[in-house]
Amino acid sequence: MDRELLLGDEAIAQAAIDAGLSGVYAYPGTPSTEITEYIQARTDDKATHNRWCTNEKTAMEAALGMSFAGKRALVCMKHVGMNVAADCFVNAGVTGVHGGLVVVAADDPSMHSSQNEQDSRFYGDFSLIPMLEPSNQQEAYDMAYGAFKLSETTGEPVLMRIVTRLAHSRAGVARQSAQPQKPLSFGEDPKQFILLPGIARRRYRALLDKQPTFVRLSEESPYNQYIDGTNKTRGIVACGIAFNYLMESYPDGCEYPVLKIGQYPLPVKQLKQLTDSCDEILVLEDGQPFVERLIKGYLGQGIRVRGRLDGTLPTDGELNPDKVARVVGKENPAYFAASPLVEMRPPALCEGCGHRDVYTVLTEILKQEYPTHKVFSDIGCYTLGANAPFHAIHSCVDMGASITMAKGAADAGLYPAVAVIGDSTFTHSGMTGLLDCVNADADVTIIISDNETTAMTGGQDSAGTGRIEAICAGIGVAPEHIRTIVPLRKNYDAMREIIREELAYHGVSVIIPRRECIQTLKRKKKNV
Amino acid sequence: MKTDIILAGVGGQGILSIATVIGQAALRKGFYMKQAEVHGMSQRGGDVQSNLRISDRPIASDLIPTGKCDLILSLEPMEALRYLPYLNENGWLITNETTFVNIDNYPEADEVYAAIKTIQHHVLLNADALAKEAGSVRAANIVLLGATIPFLGIDDATMQAAVRDIFARKGEEIVTLNLRALAAGKAISEQRI
Are B41 and A7 a contacting pair at CB < 8 A? Predict the structure, then answer.
């Protein structure tokens, strides 16, 4: 059997390599990280750019630059990364592309490792570009392989939307023939990428004019399939991975007509065929009710549409085979009850992790000496400081928000306002907030807990390793208020002293406890 | 042929290494396979599971529906109980008896064992002790893997070949040790049938 067992993420990565990829641009984020890691393991950075970027915005922009120069580029991120990349992403729809540009957004419904359930298809929709949504690993490969060409023929970036269960599930994948990279070249219109209002208006008009073509491409796409059924009391629209959950209940074929969706904008022809021949429509889609809202319309006056909006399916949480089975009247019975003995086992900071030492000393001082304190934290392993035994933090919102929220609260009169952020998150989106603090001479104490890696996602390179103090000094933090320490039990007294001094200082101070992540250290020792 | 397996444990225990061996064996047999894993935050000492589906027909869902799982294989006894609603009427529950206590409210071990024993088709074994007898406590996962062989739908010889494949680069001694561990687990399950 000439199939390889690949994660959905890996299938996309392999497809991009086989399609003549010249560069992948990404910041780590579950469940998208393995795409870039796979490419890193199989290509040489000199031949195919594969280094991690500082954040999703820099990634998106560099990829657009590579496309500008005629080569094929891939951008990968988790769904919330789309918010960071959005400025460039949306405008890239207006500039269009030259070399094929594929953006992969890995959504995380049920928030296995995330802060929200936003559905990236909304981004593709208002950016007015074609979108792909695979139902399985083979489709993920085939779609990604063809997406570069689709991008080049339409002249637009292509958004590929996947979900956790596809990204992190393995299945056999057959590959297509490998293509060479594209040569350096430039587009015919020298003003294509200059979004001055006069040019932007022309480009935007052209993008609007392409919409009927995108619908036609969707109607002709092999990924949008009308599968007839005998029972017309209901027609089912099944998007992406939801199709698999439906077919799990119908191993020998579905009784209802099914429109399997894998390419957007929605194919009008097949959709009309479904609504014309069926009494009502059931929409199955993982994530938010994107297709359901489009078909139903705001007033819901046409054909009856069932899905998440009318309560047929829950409005939150990922889809699964059980939820879908229930809706089609094929509920799966449980034979054994859940045991009352089973307790929650939440994730925790590793034994021996430097963040533990930071929180131990910090919370001891804050709780005893500053009962009015608040600690603003950020996205990373150290967010687990929210749990027992530390209960150390009061916020975790988005990448970099620790510093700026601490500033805002300090502006409002809170003292002491403390931020706890990791090194990789600091370079991702914390540096600009630090500049705001310096410019306002804000009364904040910022702890950059530096483990010299992007730990939560598995230990990827961190953009500022070895340069955190220099970055802070460059931004303008007074050198005497940039304090470093090794977070170890034997240094607790020194840590206490530094933390006390900087909490007492009314201005911007940065404390940098630095000790390598014990997981990356373990891996390094193993590989020696 | 269809075997749906839930692999359970605590982040860091190495459930994915078991999945790798079964995957290798399934590929050798030319079976279809889907294996959903958990990455990211929960790998830090939280509960983790992997849904592994093997079939001679194409597989639709990456996730196993309620009541359809043929085999729960757990590296930790309380974790084995977490997935009971997924087990089918005739499914087997195979679990290590060594507890992994990293929470304050971990239940009494004896109560956990008693709950496991209420499932008629169960194999409760001390994989760590058996692995030690086979040569190294690090082979505990392979002991548990061996215990699945009578229920897996993949023959013993293929499983042995997969273990050989996976450990080949570590040398013949490690291969032999792991084959001993595999056989020890298999023997325990055969006594239970």
Answer: no
CA distances from B29 to A1, A92, B23, B33, B162 (A): 9, 47, 10, 11, 11
For B70, the closest chain A residue by CA position comes to A335
Cβ pair B49, B11 in contact under 8 A? no
Same domain, A161 and A309: no
**From A382, which residue of chain B is nearest by alpha-carbon distance?**
B41
CATH code, domain carrying A421:
3.40.50.970
CATH number at residue B32: 3.40.920.10
Range of the domain at A479: 354-524
Are residues A221 and A264 in contact, defined by beta-carbon separation less than 8 angstroms? no
Q: Would you say residue A423 lies in a domain?
A: yes
Domain that holds residue B78: 2-192
Contacts B112 to A, Cβ<8 Å: 341
Total count of domains within chain B: 1
Of A152, A176, A209, which residue is a domain's last?
A209
Please tell me whether residues A316 and A376 are part of one structural domain: no
> What pLDDT digit, counting tens, does each position of A320-329 carry?
999 999 999 9
Q: Nearest by CB to B107, which of A33, A241, A341?
A: A341
Domain annotation covers residue A487? yes
Contact A345 B103 (CB under 8 A): yes
DSSP character for A226?
A: E
Residue A135 lies in a domain: yes
Could you write out the DSSP letters of every residue in A113-141?
Answer: SSS----THHHHHHHT--EE--SSHHHHH
* Confidence class for position A412, pLDDT limits 50, 70, 90: very high
Instruction: Give pLDDT tens digits for B2-57.
Output: 999 999 999 888 888 899 899 889 988 999 999 998 776 666 788 999 999 999 99
| CB A384 within 8 Å of CB B44 | yes
Q: Check CB contact under 8 Å for B84 and A339.
A: yes
Q: What distance in Å separates residue B18's CA from the closest CA in chain A? A: 14
Which helix (DSSP H) or strand (DSSP E) does residue B95 occupy? strand B87-96
Q: How many domains does chain A have?
A: 3
